[in-house]
Structure formats: structure tokens, C-alpha cells
Amino acid sequence: MKDVFLVHLCLPEHFNSEMWDIIPAQRNVVNTLMEERIILNYSLDMDRRNLWIFIEAVDLNEVNAIIKKFPIIKFVTIRIHELAFHDTAPTGLPELNLN
Asked: What is the pTM of this model?
């Protein structure tokens, strides 16, 4: 059975050119993991210093294996929290109006 983990990445205060260059690759990895429903949510604060990621995984080892795929991994500090539960508002298609 899979659990949900909150991964908190603390980003550097100042991005160097290498960091800026890998952002598109980071987005590609995240988009793929979101399509696979491994990453459930991905949020960045307005200061671009904190990134919060909700990951569904079997255990902490799997979470670590997932985040090792992130191109930005060598630039961040990581904190991982196993959650007791993770609720989200339902999402779906808008109601159709056949007028």
C-alpha cells in the first residue's frame, strides 16, 4: 500500500546560471511524474525559496529514489515528512450545459 509523503525542498537564495539552465529539465521530470500520479501536487512559494511536493510512494526509500531523479537535487536541502493522510478537493470536468 502506498502512503503520501510531503517533500520540502529549500532552494538557494540566489540561482547561478547552472541552476537556471536545469529548470526546464526539472519541469520535464516533474510533469512526467505528475502524469504517472507519483507526484500529486507541486508548489513553489512566491519568493522561490520553498518547493513543496506531495509524493505517493511505498516507503521512504522509494521517495528518495524519486527525488534523486530531480536535476535540481544538488542545489537543494531536503526534508521529507510521511503524512497520516492527504486530502484534496475533488477535481473533475466542468458540468456540461447543452443549451
From this structure: 0.86
CB of 9 within 8 A of CB of 48?
A: no
The residue count of the chain comes to 99
Of 45, 33, 43, 14, nearest to 71 by C-alpha is 33
- Confidence (pLDDT) at 94: 72
Q: Is residue 88 part of a domain?
A: no
**Quick check: 95 pLDDT over 90?**
no
3-state helix vs strand vs coil in the chain, percent to 5: 30, 30, 40
Full residue range of the structural domain in which residue 69 is found? 3-82
Say which CATH number the domain at 52 has. 3.30.70.1060
List pLDDT tens digits, range 58-83: 999 999 999 999 999 999 999 999 99
In angstroms, the CA 60 to CA 76 distance is: 18
Residue 16 lies in a domain: yes
